[in-house]
Design brief:
about 300 residues; alpha/beta; N-(1-d-carboxylethyl)-l-norvaline Dehydrogenase, domain 2; 2 domains; about 45% helix; about 20% strand; EC 1.1.1.169; 6-PGluconate_DH-like_C_sf
Length: about 300
């Protein structure tokens, strides 16, 4: 399969390397010194599941150089998604699939506002990995997983083909029966832990160890769950307990990418996570006091990072 990884960070770098390792024609979209290192030295994957060096690695900053693309996996930051949609629009052919692996609950809507909806599948991923150095991706925990599906949940031929490609690359994957349920399940987890981790400057383990902060995590999740149910998402009533089982099973020092970005003074996905819950709460008439507190307390730092 001819695959483009748009955004070669911890997420795109990991899955792109595994897809290339399986023999797919993978092109990495990167920039700056990261791009230069990938071109010169290949893309090095360090992983608890086994290391791999993609060399030579196809890499460019200009997607217009690539023809006959079968699949574009987008793994940038949420605030960049609309811009990326505009950039990829000219290279889409009749059969190109586009999947966003970003954190967020409405990425497919953002894509559909720019490109034809026929190209879009819903998607998400689960992985703890990061750019260790230019050209080097480090996967440190969690079984890397891609969950995807047609927006109408049909098991189409192209979805089944992608399932086969991912499986042959030994990437744990799930062709979802209800992709909205899966997206919101991941969204509930990541929005519960990320910004509160930034606000408290604490790891998952440290937050869980504090009864007061753990209770804040629960209340954050309860507000997200209420929004999801109001929007008609079919989340089970024990979803919060299930997500906390996952949180408590992760390494004590686990942190989320949003948290690391805020703590490093970088722009973050605050708006796509807790900010979206605040906005949807206002639209739906649902009170979200804990998400309000988290969002508005971090917003001045977020605005400063974007100057």
């Amino acid at each position: 399969m001819n695959i483009v990884i748009y955004g070669t960070g911890g997420v795109g770098g990991y899955f792109g390397a595994r897809l290339a390792q399986a023999g797919n024609n993978v092109t990495f979209i990167a920039r700056g010194k990261h791009l230069e290192a990938i071109k010169n030295n290949g893309l090095q994957l360090k992983s608890v599941n086994g290391n791999f060096l993609v060399k030579p690695a196809n890499a460019t900053s200009d997607i217009s150089e690539i023809k006959n693309i079968d699949l574009i996996l987008i793994s940038v930051k949420t605030w960049q998604l609309s811009e990326v949609a505009e950039i990829i629009k000219p290279v889409l052919n009749e059969n190109t699939m586009v999947i966003s692996l970003l954190n967020g609950c409405n990425n497919h809507d953002v894509l559909a506002s720019v490109i034809d909806k026929k190209h879009i599948l819903g998607g998400l991923c689960k992985v703890i990995s990061f750019v260790e150095d230019y050209g080097v991706i480090n996967h440190v925990a969690y079984e890397p997983t891609i969950v995807f599906g047609e927006l109408n949940n049909e098991k189409t031929e192209r979805a089944l083909q992608l399932e086969k490609v991912l499986s042959e690359a030994k990437i744990t994957n799930e062709l979802a029966d209800d992709i909205q349920k899966e997206i919101w399940t991941k969204y509930l987890y990541i929005t519960t832990v990320s910004a509160l981790g930034a606000l408290t400057r604490s790891s998952h383990g440290e937050m869980i160890a504090s009864p007061y902060i753990k209770n804040m995590l629960f209340k954050t999740a309860e507000e997200i769950y209420a929004i999801a149910i109001a929007k008609g998402v079919n989340l089970p009533n024990n979803i919060i307990e299930k997500q906390f089982e996952i949180i408590e099973s992760l390494p004590y020092e686990t942190t989320a990418s949003l948290q690391r970005d805020i703590m490093d003074g970088k722009p973050s996905e605050l708006e796509a996570q807790n900010g979206t819950i605040v906005r949807l709460g206002k639209e739906l008439g649902i009170k979200t006091p804990i998400n309000d507190l988290i969002y508005y307390t971090l917003l001045p730092q977020e605005n400063k990072a974007r100057l």
